[in-house]
Amino acid sequence: MASDTSNSDATASTSDGTVSNVLLVTIDSLRADAIGPYDDDRHSPVLSELAADGTVFDRSFATGNWTPFSFPAILASEPVFTRNGDIGVKGARTLASVLSEDGIATGGFNAANGFLTSHWGYPEGFDEFEPFVTSVGSSRYSRYLAAHPTVEAWIQLATSPFRRLGSKLRGTGDDRPFLDASRMFDVEDAATDFVDDTDEPFFLWVHYMDTHTPYVPAPRYIREVSDGLVGTHRMLHAHTRTSLGWEVGERTLNELRTLYQATVRQVDASVGRLLDTLEAAGIADETAIVVAGDHGEEFQEHGHLAHYPKLYDELIRVPLIVNVPGEDGGRRVSEHVGLDAIPPTVADLLGVESPPEWRGESLAPAVGDGESPDQEPVVSVTVRGEEVTEQPIPRSLSDGDLLVSVRDDEWTYIENADTDETELYHRPSDPTQQEDLSADPSDEALAVVERFAPIAADHVAELRDRQADAEAAGDDGAGDEVDEDLEARLEALGYR
């Protein structure tokens, strides 16, 4: 078991402002306003407590609208496509690689997101890595459940009383009396074992999928975030209508939002159990916690559900919380930051030097001393096919139109690099980005376009150059087929 003595001896004490370990929690499809630190009406007590004792970044932005466009920044501090035209991190100086080279133990556990697997280079640098993809696709039964959320919901409803009874008879409490469809418990158990078995300083990354479509929370969490009625019926109604392609009216939309919030609370509870593990191991007071969403989720703010290729705030603005033992809590940072700041921040907290190729800047000075973060605008990208509702597995930029957004504290500029169409939004006066100011811009808006358009153009040029180099070298990933289990998992998540 990891002891407080072995971790404490490895680095200076937390009273000197240093930590021995870092736990990075990433939550798929988690928009900023889905948790209490960003919206007082939300029920996420664990994350709210972490925020109250830590630092909340109010304007944190992802570098893309979905996992493969966001995680190169989160785990390698680089934009997607900018190294070799590929969506993964093969060959990159990943966070895990840099820390491992410095003697930090590394563990990574992903709840079956097919994009965060060896196919795209994510195990690199991890001493222990498990994506749990095979466990989802290894049987006809599990594949069927993954692709049929309404059936999953019925199973939750039918078995919930028996699972609760079984837990009481076993004396194991009420923490786990439901179907682990999202692989949350697999990740939780693996992370717990890693903490218990690791005696040296460590970096631990866990990725949750509960908040990704389809939303299938345990009934207990539906009741927690709603009016207390038997919530599974809401789940069944919403999933039935959406799975049949029926019109999503206000009732169904509210049910989907309730289900989403219930999955948030489900993850929140799991994070709480991980924090309990750190306490039990005697290392909570020397372990920093970083929590982030990899991208957001749309609930028809711009006409759709889930996270189709768009670059509005419901998909790009995500939570980012950094909790460092020994630092003053309750700090909020209003300046904009990108998720590419996560690798240098984690390295900084562990006393490891960041490699020069990393694009982001450490946020540790903002957490520790209240310094303003780097204020370069945040650039995000997506690739859109002929229809916005297409969500293929992108092999290269040639799979569709390239959309680029540039953001600062107040403004969002979006450009379709293939059609030259542009959009411009002033978020303080238009928080849901409904009023496009690009058609009739004011002098202030024109100044923003003049400042942001060259940034977008430079980013597009870099991506095009990398893609051309990759194609010339025959290394654009176009022929790199995924295996059957991985393909099944991606299809179950809606990607074809």
UniProtKB/TrEMBL annotation:
The keyword Hydrolase applies. It comes from the Archaea. Keywords: Hydrolase, Metal-binding. GO terms for molecular function: metal ion binding; sulfuric ester hydrolase activity. InterPro entries: Alkaline_phosphatase_core_sf (IPR017850), Sulfatase_N (IPR000917). Residues 357-376, 417-441, 465-496 are annotated as: Disordered. One of its GO terms (cellular component) is cytoplasm. The keyword Hydrolase applies. Residues 20-352 form the Sulfatase N-terminal domain. Residues 472-486 have a biased composition (Acidic residues). Pfam families: Sulfatase. This is Sulfatase.
